[in-house]
Amino acid sequence: KLFFTDYGSAAKVERCDMDGMNRTWIVDSKIEQPTALALDLINKYVYWLDIYLESVEVVDYQGRRRQTITKGRQIRHLCGLAVFENYLYTINSDDFSILRINRYNGTDVQALARLDHAKEIRVYQKRTQAAVRSHACEADPYGMPGGCSHVCLLSTSHKARTCRCRTGFILGSDGRSCK
Fold first, then answer.
1. Residues of the chain with CATH 2.10.25.10
2. pTM tops 0.70, yes or no
3. Scanning 7, 12, 52, 173, which has the fewest C-beta atoms within 10 Å of its C-beta?
4. Structural contact between residues 146 and 161, judged by C-beta atoms closer than 8 angstroms
């Protein structure tokens, strides 16, 4: 799945399949300016910052069990969001400090370090990634991803895929080759 935020005419947190199909709103009420998003891949939670409502919130992948982690004026100065173990990590755009927030007790906030001009944060650690299993976009015997001549996108599951073409090409009737 692909998760993303939008605060155009109607603010929301959404998800869709990797090929753009099955677009679903998972949060569409009591939300104004969701500017950063982080996923807990293990427990299947979506965290986001709303700088207008000055809150950090969480829901499960279906948009249920919504909770506010922390709320207050300091949120409007945050950018970027990452989750690892018991903490959320974010950047205070006023002083570029990296903040660590306990995701179960939003009052436990610590400044860890400063990085000049930082706007985004990511945690790279083996435990943050789900185990990789075989999938529909693996290279076929001819080296083509999922048997697609240009681009292979996972669809409704790791067993399904959609072939797409680069700009200027159209997908052939076989659903795999581009012309």
1. 131-178
2. yes
3. 173
4. yes
